[in-house]
Amino acid sequence: MKHKVKKTLLITGGTIVLVVVLIILFISPIAKYLIEKYDERILGRQIELDWAYVNPFTGYVYLSTVNVYECDSDTIFLSCNGISANFAMHKLLSKTYEITEVTLHRPKGIVIQERRALNFDDIIYRFTPKDRDTTTKRKEPLHLSILNMNIKNGEFYYYDKITPVYYFIKEVDINCDGYRWDNDTMHFRFNFLPGIGTGKAKGTFALNISDVSYHLITDIKEFNLNIIGQYLKDLTNYGTFRGLLDADVQAKGNFKDKKEITITGKLAVNDLHFGKNPQEDYLAFDRLMLAIQDISPNKHIYTCDSITLDHPVFKYERYDHLDNIQTIFGKSGSNIKSADAEKQSGHFNLVIEIARYIKVLAQNFFDSPYKLGRFELNNGDVGYNDFAISEKFSTRLCPLFIYADSIDKNHKGGKIFLKSEIKPHGNANVMVTVNPTNNNDFDVEAKLVKIPAAMFNPYLITYTSYPLNRGTIEFTSSLKVKDARLNSQNHLLIIDPKVTKREKSSDVHWIPMPLIMALTREYGDVIDYDIPISGNLKNPHFHLHDVLLDLLKNILIKPVTTPYRLEVRSLEGQIEKMMSIKWPMRKAELRPSQIRFIEDMAVFLKVNPQAEIKVSPQMYASKEKEYILFFEAKKKYYLAFHRKQAFTTDDSLEVDRLSVKDANFVHYMNIHIKDSLAFTVQEKCQEFIDTNYVNKKFNELNKRRQDLFMSYFVAEGVQDRLKIGKEHDLIPYNGFSFYRVDYKGQFPPELVNAYNMINDLNDEAPRKKFENKRKKYRKLILDT
Q1: Is the terminal CB of the chain with fewer CB neighbours within 10 Å at N or C?
Q2: pTM of the model
Q3: Strand 540-542 vs strand 533-535: parallel, antiparallel, or unpaired?
Q4: Range of the domain at 641
Q5: Residue 609 resides in a domain
Q6: What's 333's DSSP letter?
Q7: Is residue 319 domain-resident?
Q8: How many domains does the chain have?
Q9: Does residue 385 lie within any of the structural domains?
């Protein structure tokens, strides 16, 4: 009996084991078969997999090498090395469906956007609940929970067909506590790397499904912003972009209301560069950091601990047609306006969306009690280049520093300080006192000093044909604005301005500057005007009574002081010629008066064997090379236009007078230069004339100058006591290349007498007031 029972149990047990094994063996291929057969009926997509493993007793499922295809396409939408899941089988008895874990192993997916359409819209539509009949009794909700959802080492691509944009992230790990049928909140933890470049991102995200509120915490380090550059291509005609993002930010908000957000933390953009090409930036900075204490637009809260901008670079350039901003974004920003208008047709641009969102966030800013603990702009570089005139004008504020402390809507005395050097020469100091409660209340104290008048020669030559080779500008202003009513005191001082020889060219206008200078310059060789301004911001009134009075005084008084002024000018000219030898641009020529002084120096060395002279060439290389470049390009055009082989002296004069803005010359350059990004005549000439050739001509020019200068000392046999030092490449204060002359051992008596006499004249009333400034600026001129 026992033997029969034992046998029965063994058979029964074996049968059960066999059934289990058979079920496991057959249910897996059956599951694979069913998935691939009913995939389009259930998901609307074709699904393929290598094999499936299903254990109905433990609830474990594993699908190997899963490929989900695009709708009605043989292109893969999502692929995974494997998908695993665990079902809580025992809860099925209580009508509860629970997946305790689901994991996608090494998934790779692609999101494709074409205007408003996404390549997974069909899946969303398929599983979106249809409108229910409200008259029927509501059923109990489905008890479905999906817990512990994971993505491991994923890779996801995004492709916008219209813009176009191609971007991806890699090494994506996402863990979600999961969705419970009786709980509306889901918590996510994520981390990933950009597909191209450096950086990493991680954080947590909580989402309430019922009211779509969220809580985001991010930790982003040196994340590459390549995607921004791709969207910028949709807005620009040319250009390159790069940058890195750091963020340690918390945000709470609601997807239904853009303003319903609270932001705290630190946000920084590093190593940002945007410009014509990777080598030439229009906008750049090392670091922009915002330390946000609390921003909440709906609550009218805008509180920042600090905003810091390190080494910002901004360059504005003016061309014959448009400027660098309009050439890149279209005339009057037409590219941006066009892209913005296309949004109505479903066109998406991330840059515009970010700008719109920032605009929404800042909408309540001026109506709020905003606070900014500190603003710092360090080591800035703001440049302006004007190529629209006959020769390039260039200046920069560098290094530029701006500092503001305690900008508070409830504090009326906020101050902003600006300090900068002005390149090539000069300094600027500005202090602005603002009233945060009223934009029409502010004070400005400004002072510009040590600015050479010769710096503005490109404009003076273009509009008057007369450059300056001496003169120092100072400008001070005190502006007070109360309720848009202004009271401004402005003082312009130009010390010792001097007009030099007229430049003749077909593209310059003529204004009699010597006559104008005679009328505007006072008998102490200064232009000293006070110009008050009153009225309001929209309609200011300039009071020119001081200017008119000085003009009248100059007409009546200056003739009486003519002998005094002529003596001063003669002595200054004598000192200047014995201390420096100026060279005309692109030429190795000396005026008769210069030759006489050089001959006198040679005789001085011959008479005084213990004396030596050291000469330091101060070369304005960039401007000299620009003149050489223009001449050689015009020469090449001239020979081609006139079908000539030989180039005569008369031809040289004709080429000198030819304007670089001449329509035929510009047309000739455009034919031979196909670079669409060459906006200036300088750039076109640089492509037309080899740089090595220009450098060679410049070196030959310097050699001819040195040989000419040396020849007068060789004639007297004193060349061994003339030392010519190394050339210095700089932007001279007087706007011309020159030789600085230093005397060793003994000074020429003529120079000593001239100094003594000019000092005596400076002590007299007409020049006494500015004696100290003259001494300071004379040293500045000789040092440069």
Answers
A1: N
A2: 0.85
A3: antiparallel
A4: 562-783
A5: yes
A6: G
A7: no
A8: 1
A9: no
